[in-house]
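Intended use. Records like the one below are meant for learning the mapping from a protein sequence to its folded structure. Do not use them to infer anything beyond what is encoded.
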Amino acid sequence: MGKNKLVKLFFINGLLASTLLFNGCLIALGVVGTVWYLSSLHGTLYYPVNKVEPATKEAMGELHIASYSSKFSGTGEECKITGKTTTGDEVNITLTIKGVNETGISIKIGRFGDKELSKLLLKAIKKKLEKT
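Structure written out for the chain above:
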């Protein structure tokens, strides 16, 4: 087998494997626009971070998650919001500026992540933002 054929074979196999893994993750998650990765829910909100941060705290309050800390990084490009659920699980939310009206969000609840509560929180945040 020639070198060119071998390179093409590896490229096609790699492309096929990555496509199957990516599509498998989206299908398993069942949610368009978000990804469950490393026990955290990741997504993008098309609002500026200065609107997402208060909406996040309000949504946390509605779900009885005590918000006890909200800190922007020194550069102002990232905001970390922490809290606790009524069962004592830590809630860690990271907001990252991606553009003028685009904010990345990462939600992790508990040590191993609570996918359902994370989705519920993101839905509540989106609902708050739609009202602004």
